Amino acid sequence: MSEHDRQLRRLRFDLDVLSDESVPGAIARGVAENHLVKLNVVLKEIGIGRYAGASQLADTATLDRLATVLRCDPERLRAQAGRRLVEPGDRRLQHFLDFDGLVVPRGHLELARRRISPLSLARSPHHRQSWLMSVLPFCPESLECLIDSCSHCGKTLGWVQSVGIGRCENCLRPIEPNPIPPLSDDLAEDYRIFAGLLSLIPEERDAARSIMPDRLKDLSPGALARLAMRCGLDCDDGEEKRAWQTRAGRMRPERLALTAVRGVALLRSWPNGILDWATQRVAAASDEKGCRADMARRIRRIAWGDSRFDDQRDLVQEAFPGFAPPRVGLAGGGRVYTGRQANRVLPGFRTQAETIRRLRIVPTRAVASHGIMLEHAYSAVPIDAAAARWADSVPISTIASRLRLPLYAVEQLIETDLLARHDDEILAIILRRPQAVASTFEAFVRRLTERASRKRMPSTALPIGQESRRIGGRPKPWSEIYAALLDDRIPFWLDGDVDTDRLLVARGSLDRFIVASEPKVFGSNTPFATQMSTGDAAELLNVRPAVVAELSSAGVITRTKGLRAMMTPRIGVERLAAKLVSAAELARRARTSAEQVNDRLRAAGFVDFHGFWRRREVLDLLPLR
Questions:
Q1: Which domain holds residue 599?
Q2: Nearest alpha carbon to residue 409 among 479, 495, 343
Q3: Of 91, 139, 372, 590, which one's alpha carbon is 20 to 30 angstroms from that of 426?
Q4: 30: how many CB neighbours lie within 10 A of its CB?
Q5: Which domain of life does the UniProt lineage start with (predicted)?
Q6: pLDDT tens across 306-356, in order?
Q7: Cβ partners under 8 Å of residue 538, min gap 6
Q8: Per-residue pLDDT for 503 more than 50?
Q9: 563-615 residue pLDDT tens
Q10: Euclidean distance between the first and final Cα of the chain, in Å?
Q11: Which of 389, 424, 441 is the last residue of a domain?
Q12: Res 5 pLDDT > 70
């Protein structure tokens, strides 16, 4: 346990987190058992300031702090929490979450509302993990329709007060059982199999998948659940045009449950059940040609509706050899996509398709003409490869934001192989922002977390971002600094996330990087950007961002309007840093204040330049401390 953990305010009594209990449910139960009122007493202590539902997706460091405060097993909390597969701000329509192998869309996790089953709570008063899944309208345990609002006052059930999982936080009255009839017994078995595929407990997912035919057991539980719901939607008389991730949340509980049950029944009899249904539908149709066209559309949706993470197209093609769903064509012996199909695998492809064809990045040929419009076929191999890289990518700007580093620092980390960059031409056009390998970045953060010192932190320790302001005259050698941290050459402590505000080092531990030599050139690759943001320029010059704006107003540097902020030429900032030094940097090096530095230099006869001093003239005057 680190020194930071020992300083956390802990609850009085130990908490035994149950195997099927949600993380926010564990917080609420722990607070209630300690006779406290609001969940904020725990949330603020662990650094979650929004709502308790966010704890279900908390990072490892936050979960460890939570376990310390709740006095529970941290391994249990880590096993029950999920992680994002896509960074916030990504242009993809769906964000996905990973729960130890279960991949689900972010929209299927209900974190703001507290959904409960009073009948199940009567057996055990804890909040089940399955109640977080919005595509499970009935409790798999009691088959009661879940409730998310108070029947007395009408208020939504949330995660604010700890009056009990089964009580309303507004009127404090117990929630009565749902008057809607529970799910019928004839649907219970298939519904529980569907709930098992979406269970956050790996053993329950494996048990549900073991029931499936051998041909389906290679698919992951999440893919089986998506395929079941897709089959349930399309193998019906209704017309559901939208993907089930967005449509399912709008369906009535009874309809949603029947859809899931229908899909599971078709999977359990795969492929005979779904093929018999299609054959009978065509045989009973008055317009066989029109029915076959409608069937082709439905089969296409089943094959393509949710095939991003698991390739189920060949599986559907095998089940419908006579219908020949138009999944992909063949050209030159290889698979090809239409523009629409490519856009499903790689969202945003159709928007940039003309540019991709003009640059000849993907082998393409025209396959049909619709008046003046041409339909093209694209080679599937580079598109599939780009989609796989996208699933393991994170914007470089996001890394800089999470680490609180300038963009040039991330560039250094990539050039020295501490991080890795995606050099995919298709992604470069679609995303328009440089991408890094997400798994490599997460491994980098994990290594830093593991290397952090567990010894007592000295009272003079400072955030590494603050201590780095003693380094000037050039871009700071962040890659060398982080390499020294990882090699245990510089002891450091963590006070939360791995960023320059919470990673602390001893005073003077970065002085070895204060050198008068020329800036080191990192590789021969073109920089990610020849322009610097105002914040990055301020970091390099060791000043406040407002000073950069003042320099621009004085004509010392130029600033132009970029896509998101004002930008400054990088070469101009580096030249200015090599010639001039700020009073703030001198004050850091002399361990004094900027005012005393200015007074001493003016008394010695030096003249400042827009608040800066000539680096070579004044550097020797102030001793390094």
A1: 533-625
A2: 479
A3: 372
A4: 24
A5: Bacteria
A6: 544 445 666 777 777 655 444 444 334 467 888 878 887 888 888 888 888
A7: 544, 545, 547, 548
A8: yes
A9: 667 888 899 899 999 899 998 888 888 888 888 888 888 888 888 888 898 88
A10: 33
A11: 389
A12: no
221 within 8 A of 310, measured Cβ to Cβ? no
Instruction: Give tens-digit pLDDT for 43-74.
Output: 777 777 667 777 788 878 888 888 888 888 88
Rounded CA separation 170/263 (Å):
39
CA distance 122 to 189: 22
Most confident of 202-216, 239-253, 512-526: 202-216
Which residue matches tokens 């070469």? 571
Residues 313 and 333 occupy one common structural domain: no
Contact status, residue 621 vs residue 583, Cβ threshold 8 Å: no
Look at residue 267 and tell me if it is in a domain: yes
Is 502 domain-assigned? no
Let me know: does 98 contact 83? Beta carbons within 8 Å: yes
Q: Are 266 and 234 in contact (CB under 8 A)?
A: no
563 and 545 share a domain? yes
Is there a domain that residue 113 lies in? no
- The total of structural domains in the chain comes to 3
Tokens of 320: 């419908």
Written as one string, the DSSP assignment of 349-401 is: TGGGHHHHHHHT-S-EEEEEEETTEEEEEEEHHHHHHHHHHHHTEEEHHHHHH
250 shares a domain with 194 = yes
